[in-house]
Amino acid sequence: MAYPALRACAKVVVGVSGGADSLALLHALQALPAAERPALWVAHLDHALRPASEGDAQFVREMAAQWQLGCTCERRLVRETAARLQLSIEMAARQVRYEFLAGVAQAQGAAAVLVAHNADDQAETVLLRLLRGAGLAGLRGMRPLSRVPGAPQLLLGRPLLTVPRAAIDAYCAQ
Predict the structure, then answer these.
(1) 143: which residues sit within 8 A by CB, 6+ positions away?
(2) Residue 120: other Cβ atoms inside 10 A
């Protein structure tokens, strides 16, 4: 794995939305030699924001089963969380997602969570922070390796953070 800190992890949770980025990450991890990869556990959160979201969950379950990986899929009502906590849908989705991923990691005895943020996501994050008037720390963007928000005992890895979306699409097309 790209991160020395993750090499010591016996098990990691991979956040999989069902989109190209997260499926490419899962495929690349699965393709690593067994001696070089930790045990993988798939976690999918249905945010209940789109009519097709239940189909995404079923697709992720099928992919995990095809690769003989454990999988946890849950549905959370993000709109209700946003209203209750007076957050934007995006902020509520982020909070609910990281709570879910941390819970799955803890339940599975995993030491880390991997997500599929890519270079395009990083550029968007920096631009949005710039537009919101973020200071220098905010312009740094996402870190490739940090801690799961709300669960500092868990590592959060973003192995695709330097990979452009076009390269991920090309990988998926192969």
Answers:
(1) 158
(2) 15
What is the residue-level pLDDT of the chain in tens, covering all 174 positions? Answer: 456 667 778 999 999 999 999 999 999 999 988 888 899 999 999 999 998 888 999 999 999 999 999 999 999 999 999 999 999 999 999 999 999 999 999 999 999 999 999 988 888 878 887 777 777 766 788 898 999 999 999 999 999 999 999 999 999 998
**Entry pTM:** 0.91
Strands (E), 16-137: 39-46, 70-75, 112-114
Alpha carbons within 13 A on the beta-carbon side of 126:
14
* Among 127, 157, 159, CA closest to 141: 127
